């Protein structure tokens, strides 16, 4: 038999899963708390025990998404000792994931930037924190690879990733996955000279 703590954890996961799906399908502002609790089968009182507000629920979804992203990122580069090859492998993995499912390049954080543009909003802050961590990680890899202007290259690679994510939303399976890999390699080559 489950413990009360286990039930709370299961309820929290159910809320996160349901809200994630609804936000993906309809956007953050279009989905209210009543819809989330109705579709999740969790009471409103239980929801507010886990999340003081809908905004806090959104932040929890972003934090969980960030954990998933970093697990994916590490799985891509962990077996590749050479930093230069790690950079290429990130873009190859993004393109490969997109080929399997264009939805894989959907970016929850880009939606947050659109729907919560105020830098003071907690969801916007969580999204910026995640995106900044990606740029920081790219820069660290560029530095280890001994590339010129690693901060500039990291920003360029970041913009390339972001652009590919947004173009995937417009063009779906027809988004140019091979182009993102070639563009990344060309950028990296420029910074090797």
From TrEMBL:
InterPro entries with a match to the protein in the record: Homeodomain-like_sf, HTH_TetR, Tet_transcr_reg_TetR-rel_C_sf
HTH tetR-type domain mapped to chain residues: 9-69
The keyword Transmembrane is annotated on this UniProt entry: no
Top-rank taxon: Bacteria
Pfam family, one: TetR_N
Gene3D superfamilies with a match to the protein in the record: Tetracycline Repressor, domain 2
Signal peptide location: none
UniProt keyword terms in alphabetical order: DNA-binding, Transcription, Transcription regulation
UniProt DNA-binding region: 32-51
This protein's name: AcrR family transcriptional regulator
Lineage start: Bacteria, Bacillati, Bacillota, Bacilli, Bacillales
């Amino acid at each position: 038999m489950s413990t009360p703590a286990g039930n709370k954890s299961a309820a929290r996961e159910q809320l996160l899963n349901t809200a994630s799906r609804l936000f993906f399908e309809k956007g953050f502002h279009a989905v209210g708390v009543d819809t989330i609790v109705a579709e999740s089968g969790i009471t409103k009182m239980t929801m507010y025990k886990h999340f003081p507000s809908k905004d806090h629920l959104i932040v929890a979804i972003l934090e969980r998404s960030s954990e998933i992203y970093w697990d994916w990122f590490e799985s891509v580069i962990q077996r590749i000792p050479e930093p230069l090859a790690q950079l290429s492998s990130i873009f190859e993995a993004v393109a490969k994931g997109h080929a399997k499912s264009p939805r894989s390049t959907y970016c929850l954080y880009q939606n947050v930037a659109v729907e919560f543009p105020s830098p003071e909003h907690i969801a916007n802050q969580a999204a910026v924190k995640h995106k900044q961590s990606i740029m920081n990680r790219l820069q660290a890899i560029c530095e280890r690879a001994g590339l010129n202007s690693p901060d500039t290259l990291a920003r360029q690679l970041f913009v390339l990733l972001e652009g590919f994510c947004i173009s995937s939303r417009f063009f779906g399976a027809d988004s140019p996955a091979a182009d993102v890999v070639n563009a990344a390699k060309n950028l990296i080559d420029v910074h090797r000279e």
